[in-house]
Structure formats: C-alpha cells, structure tokens
Amino acid sequence: LTLTAETSTGVFISAEFCTSEARAVPEDVAKKAAELLMEEIFRGGCSDSLSQSLTAMLMVFTPPDVSKTVVGPLSPHTVSCLQHIRDYMNLTFKLEKYKHEDVEDEELRLGADKVMLSCVGAGYNNMYKKTS
User: Fold this and answer.
1) What contacts 26, CB < 8 A, 6 or more positions away?
2) Nearest-CA neighbor of 34 among 15, 48, 10?
3) I want to staple 53 with a disulfide (CB 3.0 to 4.6 A). Which of 19, 81, 93, 108 is the partner?
4) 97-122 residue pLDDT tens
C-alpha cells in the first residue's frame, strides 16, 4: 500500500508498506502505512528516508562543484551508503545540523532535526556520449 500526501507548497511525500503475512487484515496494513507516512512528514527534508542514499550518490557524480541538500535524520541505509562512498570513491560529505534562518523561536521548529549534506562532486563524465 502506498500513501501520498501533498503539502500546501505542492511537495509530495510518500510512504509504503507491504506485508508478507497471508492473513493480514487490511485495516492493519492501512494503519501501518499511515504511521509510516506520518513519520516521513515528521522527518521532513528534501528527500525521504528511502531516497536519501540515492540523493547522496547523485551528488557524488556531479561536476566538481559544491552540492548541498537538506534531509531529515539519516537512515541506517544512508549512513552505510556514505561509508561506501568514502571507501570506494575517496569522497567525504560534510554533515552539519541544519538551522532554518527564518525561525528564531525553538517552539516554532516542527519535526525532527534536519541534516545538511554537502560535498564536492567527483566530476564523472559519460565517455560514451557522442559530442559534436
């Protein structure tokens, strides 16, 4: 089951749940999917927990310039992906707690703490792409 929510600014947030139980009650599956969607909304950021690692990989292959993105708390898979990037690509990310400049009052900050990922791209080119 995949649930999608749209924010007032037009951003779509999704969560999905699949069960392997043969006798799963549809209401329980829907409840779990709704809980996962609420967790993704709480986590916030530009990438959900499932696509954080993909975002990091795409940042690695950009031209040699600084790339930045803001994500919610890092998922265990993203931490593992960042370790692999460091080991195999010899490229490290700068991780810092993201503070929104517009919000001064701590009571107005909603959701989980955000993390800003930044790195300098490795500058990979497609050598098989035809140029004129």
Assistant:
1) none
2) 15
3) 81
4) 987 766 555 555 567 888 999 999 99
3-class secondary structure, 42:
helix
pLDDT at 127: 79
Q: How confident is the model at residue 20 (pLDDT cuts 50, 70, 90)?
A: confident
- DSSP letters for 15-38: EE-----TT--HHHHHHHHHHHHH
Specify the length of the chain in residues. 132
Sort residue 26 into left (φ over 0), alpha (ψ -120 to 50) or beta: alpha
The DSSP secondary structure of 49-79, one letter per residue, reads TTTHHHHHHHHHTS-SSEEEEEESSPPHHHH
Query: Which pLDDT score, from 0 to 100, does residue 130 have?
Result: 79
Strand-pair partners of 16: 2
Q: Is the pTM of this model over 0.85?
A: no
Residue with tokens 């050598």: 127
CB-based burial of residue 48 (10 Å sphere; 0-12 exposed, 13-18 middle, 19+ buried)? Answer: buried
